[in-house]
């Protein structure tokens, strides 16, 4: 059961938590997920094959092209599990859509949970049956395979998207005017600039068409483009450009010695001598001290406390 302490909820393939639910009665416990992410997130475990009634241990399954569609069959017996899996998935998706998830970590290579899985009789890989349905039902929800967490840049990006998605869901949890959406979007400008310069203005153009769209369509289009932009990894070059923007706004109101300290921190980051957290922490301090009207509510500079913890540890 997920912990009930206000932590963001993350769906996860249950075997990654150490549950012995794999076809051979084993597990795929991921220590990074359990020991680090588990301190911050509340996990909502799912094992599609067990929950669909296949049991443990069981015959392993594979994806196979069946009459123009992708099905799930036993690797030795050829038993077709597609219908039972589809029934389970339909019910589970309805539950997960109401579970207030902020992300999902999926087991790579799994015929149910993998994002790219080989399909017998097909030219290329496809998503597992559960992963495909998850993407169709919750397309903007951040998703990653556990293998993606091995790369520092990829896992940083996933964590950032999880918190960003959660903020968006909280914002849209109440009725909001277009004006409130414009203001909230303005607070994400620096964050978007770090990932995809120019997207902030592109999304802002959507607001000009607000009168032509229903509230639901405006929300869907906004959220889709926002999350697509964040999925583009922020490069050191784009981070530096954003930091330089903040520095240029702050330096006019601080002492010369502070200007030099900030400039040195930026250059050290640019040259790869210090992590992003060094110039970011310094700039955040002086933005807070000055209550700088242009930057003091930017999500780039003011992440949530648990997000800040993970930024420095993942």
How would you characterize the overall build of this protein?
The chain is α/β, with parallel strands linked by helices and 314 residues long. The protein has 13 helices and seven strands. It has a four-stranded parallel β-sheet with strand order 2-1-5-7. A hairpin with a 2-residue loop joins strand 3 and strand 4. It starts with 8 loop residues before the first strand and ends with a helix. The relative contact order is 0.09.
Going across the major beta sheet, what is the strand order?
Answer: 2-1-5-7
Mean pLDDT: 92
Tally of strands: 7
Q: Level of helix content?
A: 40-55%
- Residue stretches low in confidence (pLDDT < 50, at least 5 long) are none
How is the main sheet built?
4 strands, parallel
Task: Label the structural class.
Answer: alpha/beta
What would you call the shape?
A: elongated
Strand-residue proportion: 5-15%
Radius of gyration: 22 Å
């Amino acid at each position: 059961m997920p912990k009930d302490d206000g932590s963001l909820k993350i769906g996860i393939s249950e075997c990654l938590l150490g549950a012995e639910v794999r076809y051979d009665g084993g597990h795929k416990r991921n220590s990074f997920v359990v020991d680090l992410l588990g301190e911050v997130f509340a996990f909502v475990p799912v094992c599609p094959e067990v929950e669909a009634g296949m049991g443990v241990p069981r015959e392993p399954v594979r994806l196979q092209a069946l009459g123009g569609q992708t099905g799930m069959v036993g690797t030795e017996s050829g038993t077709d599990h597609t219908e039972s899996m589809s029934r389970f998935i339909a019910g589970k998706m309805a539950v997960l859509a109401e579970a207030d998830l902020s992300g999902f970590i999926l087991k790579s290579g799994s015929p149910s949970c993998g994002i790219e899985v080989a399909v017998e009789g097909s030219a290329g890989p496809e998503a597992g049956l559960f992963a495909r349905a998850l993407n169709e039902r919750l397309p903007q929800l951040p998703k990653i395979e556990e293998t993606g967490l091995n790369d520092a840049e990829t896992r940083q990006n996933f964590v950032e998207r999880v918190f960003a998605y959660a903020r968006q869901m909280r914002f849209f949890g109440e009725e909001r005017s277009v004006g409130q959406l414009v203001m909230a979007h303005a607070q994400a400008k620096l964050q978007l600039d770090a990932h995809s310069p120019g997207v902030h203005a592109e999304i802002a153009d959507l607001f000009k068409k607000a009168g032509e769209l229903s509230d639901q369509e405006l929300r869907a289009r906004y959220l889709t483009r926002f999350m697509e932009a964040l999925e583009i990894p922020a490069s050191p070059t784009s981070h530096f450009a954003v930091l330089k923007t903040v520095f240029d706004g702050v330096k006019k109101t601080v002492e010369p010695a502070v200007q030099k300290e900030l400039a040195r921190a930026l250059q050290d980051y640019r040259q790869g001598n210090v992590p992003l957290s060094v110039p970011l922490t310094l700039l955040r301090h002086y933005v807070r001290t000055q209550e700088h009207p242009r930057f003091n509510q930017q999500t780039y500079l003011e992440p949530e406390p648990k997000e800040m913890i993970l930024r420095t540890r993942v």
